[in-house]
Amino acid sequence: MTAAVEHTTVANELFARFGEPPFTLQSTADEIPTLWVGKEKAVEVLHYLKTGVAKPYRMLYDLTAVDERSRQRREGQPDSDFTLVYHLLSFDRNEDIRIKVPLKGDRPSAPTLTGVWESANWYEREVFDMFGVAFDGHPHLQRILMPRSWKGHPLRKEHPARATEMGIFELPEEKQNEEQALLQFNPEEYGMARQSDQTDFMFLNLGPQHPGTHGIIRIILQLHGEEIVDAVLDIGYHHRGAEKMAERQSWHTFIPYTDRVDYLGGVMNNLAYLLTVEKLAGIRVPERAQVIRVMLCEFFRLANHLLWLGTFGQDLGQMSPVFYTFIDRERVFDIVSAICGDRMHPNWFRIGGVAQDLPNGWDGLVREFVDSFPKRLNEYDSLVMKNRIIKARCIGIGCYTREEAVEWGVTGPGLRACGMEWDFRKKRPYSGYDRFDFDIPVGRNGDCYDRSVVRVEEMRQSVRIIKQCLDNMPPGDYKSDHPLATPPRKEKTMQDIETLITHFLSVTWGPVIPHGECFHGIEAVRGSNGYYLISDNDVSAYRARIRTPSFPHAQMIPYISRGHSVADLLAIIASVDYVLADIDR
Amino acid sequence: MSDYNLSLFYLLIYSTTVVILVAGMIILSYLLGGRHREPATGEPYESGILSTGSARLRFSAQFYVIAMFFVIFDLETVFLVSWAISVRETGWGGFAVILVFLAFLLSVLVYEWRIGAFDYAVSGREILKSIRKAKGI
Amino acid sequence: MTVMGLVVIAGVLAAVISCAAFLVWFERRLLAFFQERYGPNRVGPFGVFQVVADIIKLFFKEDWVPPFSDRAVFVIAPVFVVASVLMSFAVISFAPGICAADLDVGLLFFLAMSSLGVYSIVLGGWASNNKYSLLGALRGAAQMITYEVFMGISLMGVVIMADSFNLKKIVEAQEHLWFCVPQFLGFAIFFIAGVAEARRIPFDLPEAESELVAGYHSEFSSMKFGMFFLGEYLGVTLISSLIVVFFFGGWLGPAFLPPIAWFLIKTFFFIIVFILMRGSLPRPRYDQLMGYGWKVLLPLALLNLFVTGAVVLVWQN
Questions:
Q1: Could you list the residue range(s) of the whole structural domain that residue C74 is in?
Q2: Which of A239, A271, A272, A218 is nearest to A62 (CA)?
Q3: Does residue C11 belong to any structural domain of this protein?
Q4: What is the tally of structural domains in chain C?
């Protein structure tokens, strides 16, 4: 099976249905079939891909836009000022498809996709917020990440990227009051009633400053007694504009920013970004570097799931587990810092490999950990997951079916909890995961309990993978000697002027990644994290789209918490396991 | 003073001391504490956001039902208490009477149970069952 | 006689309050021990003076009465919580002769006082005029009045066996056999209801930090918050002492230790159980807690009462 064959397959299916003229084909570095189609036909085509084709593309994996106005290298692409990019995923085919919709004008608009996919709602709001593209027929087209008072649309090229370009920031009292007033919730805006004939509904702001929300997010609850009638999520408090920063950082200097996207995932973020860059640049990573990367990523999976397990207990009122799991998380970080020199955000992977070779004695540290940890994990398992109160609190709470999960764009443990055996490490092996022996834990009911059980089991599998890394660490280079790898190799720089100049440029400006487009997704700690990068043959990305798992997961929270109580909401939040920085970027 | 009055007298002294002690603590902290005034000082805490609607609202009837149960059962406890102290005096006759009384209580309990008055929310396991049923698993 | 009585009153109050204060430190240290960490260890030897530092801090914090609150009620609520628990200690016989007010209706007096405790939660939560407080107060009211019922009924078995409401007589009635054996069911129910009354984990729903921030006392600051805090630890001490009085023979024990020592040892044992529970159990949901009470504890308490009455009557004949 080659990509080209599949490519023609889906394209032919579309041609057969809609005829060839509306489409323009584009080739990309990631070999995902990419078709351009006009906005009049777009929704119809997407709807057909979701429901009409054999082995349909059930998941709206990502939806974003590109400001094309200052892009130089776009040979063969239809004329466009703003391009909408729809990224669909078919589980039956194990294939993606990218549909692009060109839009013209300064304030373009496009028909909404919310009637086709539930998950399109937030994605379209984000595109509106970031690019000013309006979606006709969208039920609630409001800013989502930026404050309502914001002027301009940040990801448009004319919007300043640095604070220094924007004048001094001031927050006098009047402005503060205005902002506060804008944050006040207005039920009518969402078509919510303030009272029923029997009772008044309580509108409760859970967050942004609340101990149970795991960060600054606001969940506005419409309560009848303690029962949640409806909920609205207000996100964006953690928005730092990571995608905008990618447009001004060099390919190399953007790596530390990725660490902070899912700040509990550490180097796992580096990997998603670098796999995309490497694919774009055509760099082959040496085997040793791949295994080192896998090992570190699994350590971060452990660190994340340990933190999750502790806070999961904490959210359900159990006080102790968080202290136990933090002790083990510290032990993970001891190893991580021994190898990388830093704990949570090691910023350790590099284009073409990793920053350094493994230190002497790393194997002793790792071995000691993998030998002692499983026993402790079993203890936590019986302390938390086997506790009867926890079971009573979690089983049957916050359920969603496999179909609902796919509809809402759920990936990772949340998807596996409803019985779908889908893990990108297995289905689309990257960084040599196909050479490792591990299982995909799956749940059955898709409730809070199964989501949690899956995570605990994933820790066991991570330990298995780490053990295999330890036993089979291949010799060789820790970094590729490809000329675009960073930092560039220094050995020959002192011997001829050409290499010296290349080295100098590569270090000061950073490498110039050849123009093109590429996406790569990985199985990150809480779902599928992927980077969609566009290079315009420059030292930094023309557009960097970060597809994070928490965004669609958070979007689903109101849907699965309706009818449950406030206490259940906490169980749901804990089991969905989002990270605010991962939602807002 | 009789023993009884004496212990009441002690109780009076004790309660006076308690009240003085507690009031003293409140007053002391009032005198010692700092004062400050900022823009948001006068607003109720609601995660840092201005409230929508007040906390004075008509509330779900569910909570009044609990209060009713309490009235029913706690008042009937009064009879149980008076029986408990006189079990030996009232003998089997008293026992029979209280048995009838208990039967009433239990029937009330069973009735309330049956009409679902104690099911304040659907349990997760029930939800799972109904989902499985709907999917035909 | 009177002087001795006054000394006892002063002694009981001083001992109870310092015990509650000590508990704050003790619990933090013990939890830290369970949780593989240090706990407070800076102020004084082993950090014992941490509490003193905390109390001084609380006194100097801003004593804030929210302008949007029901001011008078807001001030009274914390007074209620401490006063009602402290009053209950008046009737406890710590040892022969050590009892502030040896009332014949001691047990009823305790039940009455613990009912008053509900008010502090409801009034505090309502007066705060804060949504989180309101939810906490509603949970608290429902939980506490519900468990009030079982608590009363669970003690009736003890009353039948001792044939008295007087706490001293109840202890003396256990000379041959502690009531925890014949009244095991009563003990279990009383213990659970006691945890609910003291609003301790796993029954800390009215506070439920991760859900309701601090529940009914979200808006309280300074010593008013301190009162709720103190009330909780006084409550733990009270329930532990009462368990000892009703079911574990009070001050009774082998003669090599004075009676009061036995009382303290037993009480501390139960205090540690309380702390251990806090260190290990999660929090059930509100409806589960209520359902458990009405559907399990109430029938069991009634059964216990009925069986005890029958057995006592058979025994008598």
A1: 65-316
A2: A272
A3: no
A4: 1
Contacts 24+ apart (CB under 8 A), A308-313: A308/A455, A308/A574, A308/A577, A309/A380, A309/A384, A309/A452, A309/A455, A309/A456, A309/A459, A311/A214, A311/A574, A312/A384, A312/A452, A312/A574, A312/A575, A312/A577, A313/A383, A313/A384, A313/A390, A313/C282
Say how far residue C43 (Cα) sits from the centre of its chain.
28
Q: What tokens does A299 get?
A: 């350590």
pLDDT tens-digit map of A287-331: 899 999 999 999 999 999 999 999 998 888 888 889 999 999 999
CA distance A87 to A117: 12
Domain count for chain A, please give it.
2
pLDDT of residue A462: 92
Question: Which residues in C lie closer than 8 A to residue B17 (C-beta atoms)?
Answer: 9-10, 13
Q: Which two tokens stand for residue C184?
A: 């095991």
Residue A483 clears pLDDT 80, i.e. is over it? no
Half-sphere exposure of C244 (CA within 13 A, CB side): 28
Q: Does A286 sit behind a cis peptide bond, omega within 30 degrees of 0 on the bond before it?
A: no
For residues B58 and A198, give the distance between their C-alpha atoms in angstroms, rounded to a whole number.
8
> How would you write the pLDDT of chain C (317 residues) with one tens digit per residue?
577 777 888 888 888 888 888 888 899 999 999 888 888 888 888 888 888 898 888 888 888 888 888 888 888 888 888 888 888 888 888 878 777 777 778 888 888 888 888 888 888 888 888 888 888 888 888 888 888 888 888 888 888 888 888 888 888 888 888 887 788 888 999 999 888 888 887 888 777 777 788 788 888 888 888 888 888 898 899 999 999 988 988 888 787 888 888 888 999 999 999 999 888 888 888 888 888 888 888 888 888 888 888 888 888 77
Q: Residues 144-173, chain A: which have Cβ within 8 Å of B?
A: 173
The identity of residue A404, as a single letter, is E
Domain that holds residue A318: 242-584
Please name the member of B47, B61, B127 whose beta carbon is closest to the beta carbon of A399: B127
Task: Kindly report the average pLDDT of chain A as a whole number.
Answer: 87
Distance, CA of A457 to CA of A442 (rounded, Å) = 9
Mutation choice for B interface testing from C109, C305, C316 by most B CBs within 10 A = C305
Going by the DSSP 8-state scheme, the letter that residue A174 receives in this structure is H
CB-CB under 8 Å, B13 with C159: no
The CATH number covering residue A272 comes to 1.10.645.10
- C-alpha atoms less than 13 angstroms from C-alpha of B99 in its C-beta half-sphere: 11
Quick check: is A170 in a domain? Answer: no
Q: What share of chain A is helix, strand, coil (3-state, %, to 5)?
A: 40, 15, 40
Residue carrying the six token digits 């006080």: A319
pLDDT value at residue A8:
60
Residues 6+ apart with CB under 8 A from A287: A432, A474, A476
Residue C215, domain member (yes or no): yes
* pLDDT above 80 (res B119): no
Tokens of B3: 């023993």
Domain assignment present for residue A175? The answer is: no
Residue A174: C-alpha distances to residues A91, A171, A492 (Å): 52, 8, 61
Question: Is residue C15 in some structural domain?
Answer: no
Taking the alpha carbons of A47, A50, A56, A57 in that order, is the dihedral positive or negative?
Answer: positive
Residue A311 within a domain: yes
- Residue A385 maps to a domain: yes
Q: Which of C128, C134, C145 is nearest to C224 (CA)?
A: C128
User: CB distance B60–A224 less than 8 Å?
Assistant: yes
In this structure, is residue C39 part of a structural domain? Answer: no
Question: How many whole angstroms separate alpha carbon B51 and alpha carbon A185?
Answer: 8
DSSP calls for C127-168: HTT-HHHHHHHHHHHHHHHHHHHHHHHHHHHHHHHHT-S-HH
For residue B126, list chain A residues with Cβ-Cβ distance below 8 A: 396
Question: B118: Cβ–Cβ under 8 A, 6 or more apart, which residues?
Answer: B112, C290, C291, C294, C295
